[in-house]
Amino acid sequence: MQISMTVNGSEVVSDIEPRVLLVHYIREVLGLTGTHWGCDTTNCGTCVVLMDGQPVKSCTVLAAMAAGHDIRTVEGLATAGTLDPVQQGFMEEHGLQCGFCTPGMMLTARALLDKNPHPDDIEIRKAISGQICRCTGYATIVRSVQWAAAHPAGAVADVAATDEVLEGTDTVIPDVADAEVKA
Ligand code: FES
Ligand code: FES
């Protein structure tokens, strides 16, 4: 069957088998391997992506069910080569260890902050409660989200505003948003 959807701002069209899960479509067809695949049983949350701005576990969504929707993966968090404040927060507050849970955690954090720019500790913990960090770094993950909430424009803009020098804020990453469908 043929499906089309928007992924990180680009429209993609593919011929797929109806049984293909969204996580496999994203990783294997689109080549966006930042979306991780863990338990495959809806438990760990490492496969979380945003569908129309809402976190979904992509191992429990058929790719066909995402047709016509707007999908955002971790590769779509940075814009114009500048890290999202959530990414900067994870960097500033050491919100990752092995990094396996990190893409899903960051996307859930982005969805939370889009809806609630000033979440308290409980609201952050509730938002990520469906996701497991095998390294058990929850305290630093919560602090990372708090950092992003406190710096909604990101560290670069804050440096300009406050004339402070923050290390690592000029990080520029390649633009990987333009995923081309090859299948
Ligand atoms: S791989 Fe989807 S919830 Fe674990
Ligand atoms: S940082 Fe290792 S699983 Fe979360």
Would you write up a description of this structure?
With 183 residues, the protein is an alpha+beta fold. It is globular and about 45 Å long. It has helices spanning 22-29, 85-92, 102-115, 121-127, 138-150, 154-162; strands at 2-7, 10-15, 48-51, 54-57, 70-72. It folds into two domains: 2-76, Beta-grasp domain (Ubiquitin-like (UB roll)), CATH 3.10.20; 85-162, [2Fe-2S]-binding domain (DNA polymerase, domain 1), CATH 1.10.150. The protein is built from six helices and five strands, in the order ββαβββααααα. The termini are close together. Residues 161-183 have low confidence and may be disordered. It binds FE2/S2 (inorganic) cluster (2 copies).
CATH H-level superfamily of the largest domain: [2Fe-2S]-binding domain
Give the SSE order as H and E letters: EEHEEEHHHHH
Note the main sheet.
Answer: 5 strands, mixed
CATH top level of the largest domain is: Mainly Alpha
Number of helices: 6
Low-confidence stretches: 161-183
Just name the CATH architecture of the largest domain. Orthogonal Bundle
Give the overall pLDDT as a whole number.
Answer: 88
| Helicity range | 25-40%
- Please give the domain count: 2
Provide the structure class: alpha+beta
**Bound ligand species:** FE2/S2 (inorganic) cluster
Please report the total strand number as a whole number: 5
Give the strand content: 5-15%
And the CATH topology of the largest domain?
DNA polymerase, domain 1
Radius of gyration, in angstroms, nearest whole number: 16 Å
Shape: globular
Report the span from N to C terminus.
Answer: 12 Å
What strand line-up does the widest sheet have?
2-1-5-3-4
